[in-house]
Amino acid sequence: MAKFGKRTVAAREAFAGKDNLTVEDAVALIKSNAKAKFDETVEISMNLGVDPRHADQMVRGVVGLPNGTGKDVRVAVFARGPKADEAKAAGADIVGAEDLMEIVQGGKIEFDRCIATPDMMPIVGRLGKVLGPRNLMPNPKVGTVTMDVADAVKAAKGGEVQFKAEKAGVVHAGVGKVSFDTDKLAENIRAFVGAVAKARPAGAKGTYMKKVSLSSTMGPGVSVDVDNAVTE
């Protein structure tokens, strides 16, 4: 039988029997039990009543968190000429075309968000098997295939979060750091839940949001009252 450290045991005891909390109470519980030596990320996991294998039940979107993510997002941009210059001026970490494609094909992926101008998609399309599984493939539906690369870079750097339902109908994302004030984390969480609610696909039947849970990077999870997460 696995043995847990004192910190893990204490955290589990603190969370025991606590379910369907308000967002604020869940955040307070997570913050008080985040004991790692680094600033842990507050993570949200949502179980949705969808089957993403069907096109009319896919849940995908993007949301700008009002208080940012607290994470330094590294952005790569596929662009040429003036658009490449715009991306660099906006703060993109990596900018290129065929040269960037070769870097990615070689397995070196040192970025968290990938943006491309429409004319670059024939090149980027060759990287589908590499970028797709990492949820890094540029997509016009979430604003990462665009001619307005400067705004896209600034949005990615400023706290924009993409979400996509996995095979089991689960959406997962980081919504801030435990060092954030409780009210700022709560605002981010409700903004994220609200965006997922608005992204309800036409093919979704029955209960759409089945469960919402919060946790820190190294801590246990706690369920949140869905209605409280949707409305303040």
TrEMBL record:
Keywords: Repressor, Ribonucleoprotein, Ribosomal protein, RNA-binding, rRNA-binding, Translation regulation, tRNA-binding
CDD domains named among the record's database cross-references: Ribosomal_L1
GO MF entry, a single one: rRNA binding
Alphabetical GO biological process terms: regulation of translation; translation
One GO term describing the cellular component: cytosolic large ribosomal subunit
UniProt family annotation: Belongs to the universal ribosomal protein uL1 family.
Job description of the protein: Binds directly to 23S rRNA. The L1 stalk is quite mobile in the ribosome, and is involved in E site tRNA release. Protein L1 is also a translational repressor protein, it controls the translation of the L11 operon by binding to its mRNA.
Description of how the protein assembles with itself and partners: Part of the 50S ribosomal subunit.
Name of the protein described by the UniProt record: Large ribosomal subunit protein uL1
